[in-house]
From TrEMBL, chains A, B:
Cofactor or coenzyme needed: Mg(2+)
Origin organism lineage: Bacteria, Bacillati, Bacillota, Bacilli, Lactobacillales
Localization of this protein: Cytoplasm
Name of the protein: Holliday junction resolvase RecU
Family: Belongs to the RecU family.
Length: 205, 205
């Protein structure tokens, strides 16, 4: 996109490609914004007709809305509500996907305090309805990403209820599927979904 | 719930059961709040382990948040955003459900102005990913509810692009699956989903 000045010269706007490049360079050093990377991956999958996955909006209790003349309605008072589901869901090849994305700066384990009972309850209900349900775990200090199935997370959650409150990286390396970040999609989680489906079909046979 | 006064007497708060009762009695006369009926049906299906379906929160662009001492964060400025999906989705028996609920006071046709291009586009993408995608149409003046598959809605939408902008009730009676409202769940849409699946499997054979 460019603005054209009267002298015929164009004034290029900051290109989104440049912005993306800038983001990529800071990504390795300062830890990427994991949620943003997931959202961009969803966008990629959507535009390439691979899957339809969206992040759910933050639930708000709206109390007061102003309707000013000649401009858009403005919410003037609202409160955050506890979400009753995970953040992401959608459809891939007939499968219902339902997942949560979490990150930690820890290097040796993933703290379970990142999860809440209502999310675990929701994931159990989804698993019962045969959804593909999982969490994407991001170790920002290690630049490593894992797909951990809800079944395994829930097992661990129930075992750990009253003891150690984190999953050691060694357990995750064994039980989860590692996802290697790419340029596009940045977090190619559908590869992990396919591996999970393959494994599940073998186990069921 | 009750407040206790110093004299030991309790002051009962208005019971939600009474509120529900009041709503039920007005339902037949003044037309029910369709969205509320769907939400209650989702709640019923969730608690009875039949399906996990939730309404998506309204998407808001949050601009300003206050964090007062000793009380909850308050959103002080936010704007409504265009949703990029339908209102409802979830999982039933391994199937991904994705739908929109709309009502009209009309008696002879359903106006297509109730739908937006972005919703149609989203539904087409879901259909391509083999989702069970549909709209629930409520004729409030007739007390009649229909399940219309996204495939048929999209066909009609494309045909009608530049002509008559509504679907006649007679067409809906032929092409859609009628849902008879009940006590619980109030809108038993999973019955229609089952009929749709049965029909679809016969067509595919």
């Amino acid at each position: 996109m460019a603005f054209h000045y009267p002298n015929g010269q164009s004034f290029p706007l900051k290109k989104s490609a440049q912005q993306t490049l800038k983001k990529e360079t800071t990504f390795a050093n300062r830890g990427m914004h994991f949620e943003e990377a997931i959202n961009q991956s969803n966008e990629y999958y959507l535009t390439h007709d691979k899957a339809v996955v969206h992040k759910k909006p933050t639930p708000l209790q709206i109390v007061k809305v102003d309707y000013p003349k000649r401009s858009a309605a403005v919410v003037k008072e609202a409160y955050f509500r506890q979400p009753s589901t995970t953040d992401y869901n959608g459809v891939y090849h007939g499968y219902h996907l339902d997942f949560e994305a979490k990150e930690t700066k820890n290097k040796t384990s993933f703290p379970l305090k990142n999860f809440h009972q209502h999310q675990i309850t929701h994931m159990q209900k989804c698993v019962n309805q045969q959804a593909i349900c999982f969490v994407l775990l991001w170790f920002s200090s290690l630049n490593r990403c894992f797909f951990l199935s809800a079944e395994k997370l829930i097992d661990y959650w129930n075992e750990q209820e009253n003891s150690r409150k984190s999953i050691p990286l060694s357990v995750i390396e064994n039980e989860a599927i590692e996802i290697v970040p790419q340029i596009a999609p940045r977090i190619p989680y559908l590869i992990a979904v396919e591996k999970y489906l393959e494994k599940r079909s073998q186990t069921n046979v």
